[in-house]
């Protein structure tokens, strides 16, 4: 995978030994305000072995049209985002990023797996790389179910 600054990396390098909330994001979506909640989670749990990783994606009605640099600037200026952002990637279809190919096998709270439904779908990945939570886009980052799952899976 690639960070939004062009650096090739892995999830282990981005967040070694951390619980990761990977979220496909978009700057022009009805859920874009969720960046605030994601940053809140980062601030609240970042020092306890947790990080949010944003994965900008332009596959849902073209709601992430900017360059990687534009996206980073937008997130920083409008939401104070300081968690890592990946370069734009695809989460569904023929060009699906390999990480998302694996993630989509995880089930959500209703037992549904498969394609990412929309922007701001969230995957909680433990330190061993297992998906311990899949949260659909409509659920806000600060929802009690998300916070509870984070707290239950923080590294010791």
UniProtKB/TrEMBL annotation:
The active site is at residue 29. GO terms for molecular function: peroxidase activity. Keywords: Oxidoreductase, Peroxidase. Transmembrane segments: none annotated. One of its GO terms (biological process) is cellular response to oxidative stress. This is Glutathione peroxidase. It holds the Pfam family GSHPx. SUPFAM superfamilies: Thioredoxin-like. Belongs to the glutathione peroxidase family. The keyword Oxidoreductase applies. InterPro entries: Glutathione_peroxidase, GPX_AS, Thioredoxin-like_sf.
């Amino acid at each position: 995978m690639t960070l939004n600054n062009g650096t090739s990396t892995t999830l282990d390098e981005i967040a070694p030994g951390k619980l990761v909330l990977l979220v496909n994001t978009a700057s022009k979506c009805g859920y874009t305000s969720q960046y605030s909640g994601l940053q809140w989670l980062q601030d609240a749990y970042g020092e306890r072995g947790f990080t949010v990783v944003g994965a900008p994606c332009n596959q849902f009605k073209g709601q992430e049209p900017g360059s990687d640099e534009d996206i980073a600037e937008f997130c920083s200026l409008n939401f104070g985002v300081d968690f890592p952002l990946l370069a734009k990637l695809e989460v569904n279809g023929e060009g699906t990023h390999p990480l998302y190919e694996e993630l989509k096998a995880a089930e959500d709270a209703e037992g549904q797996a498969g394609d990412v439904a929309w922007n701001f779908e969230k995957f909680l990945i433990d330190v061993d790389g297992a998906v311990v939570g899949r949260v659909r886009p409509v659920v806000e980052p600060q929802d009690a179910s998300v916070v509870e799952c984070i707290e239950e899976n923080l590294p010791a």
